[in-house]
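Provenance and format

Records in this collection were gathered into a single text stream. Each protein contributes a sequence line and a token line. The two records reproduced below are adjacent in the stream.
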Amino acid sequence: MTRIVFFGSDEIALPALEHIRAQPALSLTAVFSQPDRPAGRGQKTHANAIVSWAENHAIPAHQPARLDAATPAALHACGCDLALVMAYGHILKRDLLSAPPLGFFNLHASLLPGLRGATPIEGAIAEEFAQTGVTLQRIVPRLDAGPVVDAQTIPMTPDETRGTLREKITTACVPLLQRALPRIINGTATEIPQDESAATFTRKITREDSAVDFHASAREIAARVRALNPWPGVVILWEETPLKIGAATPLPFPSNTPPPAPGTLLSAGKDGIHIATGNGILRIRELQRPAGKMLPAHAFIAGFPMQPGTALASKPMPPLVTKTPRQTTGAAFP
């Protein structure tokens, strides 16, 4: 019986946990997760999905505010042979990584070495990848840089959203673990070093990333809308009122007319709200005002008239994916 401890704080890891619990040769001895924090409009505190799942299955759950010198001892105490991590949110230090005899392994939501870091799902959508995946890699004391055991490839559609891709990621974890865990446990896994020259990096997303630059292409803006929906979303500023875009489609400029200035509102009607960009037209299909509901564009403008010819402000959109780690973000609308 191989004893496993799981580190995770996001419901994206639930299918992986279910798979581990269902294996007769595996014993899930404990779960580590982030502390419960207030969330939502009422700022109520609720147990996260991972802790709730553990409690429902009578599996000990630990929620330390930080991992300290006592954590390796806690792993030894529960007889941990192997540790798995997915979307945990704490840095794992060297002394902790050496505690389980078989090591620490991470389920990372990209095909490494591409899209290392905190937001690989959003990065894959913003960059309009044709495919992404989940990689199982040994954790080392450097960001997502450990050798790769195996990966599960996921095809992406042109209209992929954060929600649809998250669902694909959760599903892909199961066949990956089915193949890789037995090899890790019996010592036959091949660990392949990553190609550092091919590494790219994502970063933490903040509210400031809701800014939109209409000098970018309509295709780039529409992809960013899909990547950042529902939070923080992509926001346009209309007469000091921030409006969140729910869905958008890129369209080409008509071939027989000169391109208007980026940010110009071209039309607002039954077929959507059309805004000129640096390359093409952004057709907004859904829009939301503060404290309101997300509405189809035609329903939105029925109660919020928008005058064609209005020039909308642009603000920088720092890339979500870079060749080097980056923490800076752009300027948010108020």
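Adjacent record:
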Amino acid sequence: MNSSKEIIVEKIISFLPGGDCSGHGGCGEISCGNCAQAISEGGAVNLCPACSQETVDSIAEVLGRESVKVIKKVAFVACSGKPFTESQLEGAASCEEAKDRGYRPGQCRSGCLGLGSCIEVCKFGAMSLKDRKIIIDRDKCNGCGACADMGVCLQKIIKIIPAQATNFIPCSSTEEDEDIVRKSCGFGCIACGECERACPSGSISIVNNHAIIDYSTCSGCTACVTKCKKKIIVDTLHDITILKERVAFVACRGGYKSGELLKGLGFTGCREAAMNTNPKDNKLCTTGCIGLGDCTRVCRYDAISLVNGTAKVDVDKCVGCKDCLYTCPRSIISIVPYKGARMIPCSSVADYKEKSEICGVACAGCGDCEENCPNSAIYLEGRHCVVDPEVCESCHACEYVCSRRVIGDRVVPEYIYLQRAVLNNSEGE
């Protein structure tokens, strides 16, 4: 006949989720039985992190103790990239084996290894592997913590966070060099500190060259999402394509000629073509869009496409992350304020005669727009005009006087000003 103590332990076991994390769970015990035993002997009634509020209340009632408030938690993988190539992972049976094979130059040493060794310890079917990335089913995950155990995740990048959290920073990079981070991973945090400075509650800090969120004080506002230069902060409440201050702009609209000609020569990428051809040999613009789409391939938001052979930015999708800037070999992509403004899509430094022969949509450099701008927002630079969007008041005078109809107007929907309210700015700032 079981003793009253054994009966209590068995009762507690019946309340526990029953996955038996084999010593990997957050309770620190080797089994659910040991966890129940520890609770019965004075351990916290919420010692098992996977228990719901109802379960903890029931355990407290059996023990005649006061219950405690439960904060439901789930697992989160602080990485959205893929450090290894498929060839490196071929034949590897575990994350440990993949890591032992070593990294190649330029690969992130802090990211998810992509073989899913953590999935094996999840007893609740909350983890899966898709395209070498761990997917967490938040409806099934109960925050037991088994996957986050240091003996399971070699990279120590799985975190247990509050289920109600809405902002996430999916990066654990320790790399100091911003350029290396950008080249190795489109989702990498560059530790610029903009999110840390913008956070009104001081909930973000830079640790080991990447940003982390303290969820005990995070209010879930959009300040960090808006200010993130790389736009990698995930926000499940707000649309990141709306919460932005700046977007990309391609200073060219005549790349169609380059793209078609260079394709015919066998080139498939802009950088490759730029390094191996002389534009003047083919009567092409030396500063314009090459038209082979390197920028379109690195854009995570499908915000750049080739329209008539020229890179064009969809400002409704662009978030201003700058990945395209670092990819363009001609450096003709810039970041401009996301608000209504005139823009001049031309970077040509050629004289007017040469421009006329090469491109029918280039800025003539006549200076009429500069002379007629009432705010001095336009200036001549390298034989083409440039609009300073910070000064431009969208009066349209430049459009009226432009003989080549080069100057374009960008209309921004009213909802963009939501971000200014979040950051305590007024609409015109």
